[in-house]
């Protein structure tokens, strides 16, 4: 419904950073950021796993192996 994208726009504007769709980058790109602000919709697609229905589902396993030590990563959900 676009709520997560709208929230990301407001947060990025207030924080003075650029919002980037995770579908446009790879896990290897995450190391290049000082920190991340992560948004994902909160709906349930009915799947047992990987149920956001977004590009995050494709990255979950890869992110587990990424070195994000020392990076702040606040997370928000959009309904």
Question: Can you offer a commentary on this structure?
Answer:
This protein has 79 residues and is an alpha+beta fold. The protein is 33% helix and 10% strand. It has a two-stranded parallel ribbon.
Q: Which helices and strands occur, and which strands form pairs?
A:
Layout lengths: L2 H13 L11 H4 L7 E4 L13 H9 L11 E4 L1
Parallel strand pairs: 1-2
Q: How far apart are the termini?
A: 8 Å
As laid out across the biggest beta sheet, the strand order is 1-2
Structural class of the helix and strand makeup?
alpha+beta
Low-confidence stretches: none
Radius of gyration: 13 Å
- Say how many strands there are: 2
Largest sheet: 2 strands, parallel
Mean pLDDT: 86
Q: What's the shape?
A: globular
* Percent in helix: 25-40%
User: What's the order of the H and E elements?
Assistant: HHEHE
Number of helices: 3
Which percent range describes the beta-strand content?
Answer: 5-15%
Could you give a quick summary of the protein structure above?
The chain has helices at 3-15, 27-30, 55-63, and strands spanning 38-41, 75-78. It is an alpha+beta fold. The protein has a two-stranded parallel ribbon.
Properties at a glance:
two-stranded parallel ribbon, alpha+beta, 79 residues, single chain, 2 strands, globular
């Amino acid at each position: 419904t676009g709520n997560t994208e709208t929230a990301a726009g407001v947060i990025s504007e207030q924080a003075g950073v650029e919002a980037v769709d995770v579908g446009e980058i790879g896990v290897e790109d995450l190391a290049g950021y000082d920190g991340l602000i992560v948004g994902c919709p909160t709906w349930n697609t009915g799947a047992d796993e990987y149920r956001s229905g977004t590009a995050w589902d494709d990255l979950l396993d890869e992110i587990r192996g990424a070195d994000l030590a020392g990076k702040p990563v606040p997370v928000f959900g959009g309904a």
